[in-house]
């Protein structure tokens, strides 16, 4: 098995869009207020660029895209970034890809000078929450001002 993590390219957009939407549906993240409905999902490579202090990493197994994860400024903040759209197909879970993607994104965030990382998710995504806790994210009582995802019910923050 060959695992590859690389920055998103335009030819990845279609596959990542399908993965984000199908995994979102699996966990009930459907419609307004959830990440899979964000306009950027249709063309992720256009939204996640170094010029925008953001990156989206794509994970492949044996040449097939199985998921991804990104970092972008939160609410146009210079200090706070957001971990965004960590979605993995069921067959790729449990291999350490979520951790590897998240750690690479957090390293990028530090390189960009961000001081803290925010994320929002769903309580149904328990394995992701467990990963975030192990990586040092702590739970917040409510979302940070400026959050785009009103449908989420878990909010977390980590100092970088």
Can you tell me about this structure?
With 160 residues, the protein is α+β, with helices and mostly antiparallel strands. It has a single domain, classed as Gcn5-related N-acetyltransferase (GNAT) (Aminopeptidase). It contains four helices and seven strands. It has helices spanning 13-26, 44-47, 97-111, 126-134, and strands at 3-7, 55-61, 64-73, 80-88, 116-121, 138-139, 154-159. It has a seven-stranded mixed beta sheet. The longest helix has 15 residues, at 97-111. The mean pLDDT is 94.
| Spans where pLDDT lies below 50 across 5 or more residues | none
Strand order of the largest sheet: 1-2-3-4-5-7-6
Largest sheet: 7 strands, mixed
Helix share bin: 25-40%
Radius of gyration, in angstroms, nearest whole number: 14 Å
Number of strands: 7
CATH superfamily: Gcn5-related N-acetyltransferase (GNAT)
- Sketch the topology as an H/E string, one letter per element: EHHEEEHEHEE
Q: Provide the domain count.
A: 1
> Which fold name corresponds to the CATH topology?
Aminopeptidase
Helix tally equals 4
CATH architecture: 3-Layer(aba) Sandwich
Strand content: 25-35%
Query: What overall form do the CA principal axes indicate?
Result: globular
Q: Structural class per helix/strand content?
A: alpha+beta
Distance between the termini: 32 Å
Please, what is the average pLDDT? 94
Supply the CATH class: Alpha Beta
Brief digest:
This protein is an alpha+beta fold and 160 residues long.
């Amino acid at each position: 098995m060959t695992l590859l993590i690389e920055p998103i390219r335009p030819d990845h957009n279609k596959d990542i869009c399908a993965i984000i939407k199908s995994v979102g549906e699996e966990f009930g993240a459907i419609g307004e207020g959830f990440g899979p409905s964000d306009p950027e999902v249709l063309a992720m490579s256009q939204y996640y660029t170094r010029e925008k202090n953001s990156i989206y990493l794509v994970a492949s197994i044996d040449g097939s895209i199985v998921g991804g994860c990104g970092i972008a400024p939160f609410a146009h903040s210079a200090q706070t970034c957001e971990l965004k759209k960590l979605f993995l197909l069921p067959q790729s879970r449990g291999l350490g890809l979520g951790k590897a993607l998240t750690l690479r994104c957090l390293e990028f965030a530090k390189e960009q000078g961000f001081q803290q990382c925010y994320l929002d998710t769903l309580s149904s995504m328990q394995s992701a929450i467990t990963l975030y806790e192990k990586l040092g994210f702590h739970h917040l009582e409510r979302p940070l001002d400026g959050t785009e995802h009103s449908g989420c019910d878990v909010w977390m923050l980590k100092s970088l």
